[in-house]
User: Fold this.
Amino acid sequence: MTARDWPISDALLHAYGSLITEQTGLRLDPQRWPELRSTLPAWGVAGPVEGRALVQALARQLSVGETYFFREPAAFDLIEHELLPALIAKRRRSTRRLRLWSAGCCTGEEAYSLAIVLQRLIPDIADWDIVIVGTDIHPGFLASARAGVYGEWSFRGVPHGLRETCFLPCGDEHHAVLPGLRRRTRFRFGNLAQDEAPGAGFDLILCRHVLMYFEACKAQQAIGRLQAALGEDGWLLLGATESSAADHPSLAALRFGDTTIHRKRRAGDAPEVSKRTLQRSANQGESPVHDAIARCRTASAADPCDPGQHLRYALLLEQLGRLDEARAALRRALFLDARLAAAHAALARLNARQGRRGGAIIVHDAAGHRAG
Assistant:
């Protein structure tokens, strides 16, 4: 019997799934086991779990490769009209240096989109020191990114005329990125679950539609690495469904229309919650609740992947009437453990207190279902 004919047990699937998560961060839910079950024999796997290289190869096989130029126009509108103009004005007075990172760059469309925006914003770009780094775990994706040749599917939704100004036709309905844009981009292997950042002092990091596939604790650890790679006042832009995961004391969340972006706090800046707590403590002394909140924050910083700590923090904030902060803490708890019935019940209670009756009913139903 060959490896292709060997029955793949659930235990072997679970073992490989756990290793894939540990080494790459990717969450492999049971509904994806059939995909893994069909993939393992193709790699000649029949018996016990094998080496690190095979595990990472399997993870690459299972990764999602969907992207295109200027994906999510609202995000790029924010980048082009708010974030980069301010950065460019600041750097023009000093170093004329910009560093951008597309983390989980897939086949490179996002990194090249950033290069196109910078070319539009900086008339004298040849006099600037600009590097855009794209990283990904998939060598095939990186090879495509370095080649810089794209078909029709990558241009869906792209403004009319972009291909004519930023690309060269190269036959068979494909277009190649202009050499000037390619010179400002670099692509390299990068594993967000384990590797260090490809540099430091980044002005803008994009990590979109990547962490949504990560196990929650691995996503939190990756966010720690991303924020550490930001320069002072640097920006981190996640996908719309991932922003709630970016709970880090060094990041401040700002809302621009429908887009949430995180900015690195300057050294010495405390989160607003801490400032209010310190001011209240100075004026009237620490209450038992404030003392408990301080302990919760310390415990959460030590283990940001513990949903129970975020739940306890939320309940204490609710006692103080800080309902919006309590709601945010509950969302973090549920991001880490969607089955946490007590968090669902607490969120329903907050909805009711704030007049969000429809939401309260929905969350109560979810809590009851999980508790039952």
